[in-house]
Amino acid sequence: MVAMSLLAGLAVLGFGTSEAVLQHRLRRKGIRVGGLVVRHNLRGAGKEGGPPSRFAVIEFVDAHGSRHTFQAGASGVRGLPVGGGVPVRYLPHDVPKSARIDLTRRRIWDIGGLLAIGTLFTAIGIWMLATGR
User: Fold this and answer.
1) Beta bridge partners of 53
2) Which of 76, 87, 3, 23 lies closest to 46 in space, CA to CA?
3) Which residue from 35, 40, 53, 61 has the least number of CB within 10 angstroms?
4) What is the tens place of the pLDDT at every residue in 8-67?
5) What is the C-alpha separation between 26 and 99, in angstroms, rounded?
6) Secondary structure of residue 117 in the 3-state scheme
7) How far apart are CA 65 and CA 69, in angstroms?
């Protein structure tokens, strides 16, 4: 249990750090374009058998006129209705893999959520090691 908590925590911290680096690169070197929410994908059942999580699928046209589609990394679609516009930022050499919704609240959740969860699991693992549980 200790090893799983530490491993999971460090892995999620790694994903959060990677996302923070990508978001920083997008802010510095990314190209901002308008995107369109084309649908919402459903994934799995929610907590305690609740409704499934919804992920916005965004379509955008890059600077060269090529059309790309990507799925938002975080669930939740409040404020992102199908047919609604959304700002997108991408790196020209890594389209569409680097594409992200360019909204401050999304950036905060994408990075902060991962770092908070990773820190929690890592702290639990360290606590379990320190207390011998």
Assistant:
1) 43
2) 76
3) 61
4) 999 999 999 999 999 999 999 999 999 999 999 987 765 666 777 889 999 999 999 999
5) 9
6) helix
7) 13
Report yes or no: 60 and 34 within 8 Å, Cβ to Cβ.
yes
Distance CA 121, CA 132 (A): 16
The token duo for 119 is 């820190």
Of 105, 60, 96, the residue nearest 78 (C-alpha):
105
Residues 6+ apart with CB under 8 A from 131: none
The number of C-alpha atoms within 13 Å of 12 and in the hemisphere containing its C-beta is: 20
Residues 6+ apart with CB under 8 A from 1: 128
HEC sequence for 53-105: EEEEEEEEECCCCCEEEEECCCCCCCCCCCCCEEEEEECCCCCCCCCEECCHH
The rounded distance, in Å, linking the Cα atoms of 43 and 52 is 6
Copy the structure tokens of residue 11.
């892995």
83-115 pLDDT tens trace: 999 999 999 999 899 999 999 888 888 899 999
Structure tokens at 72: 């938002």
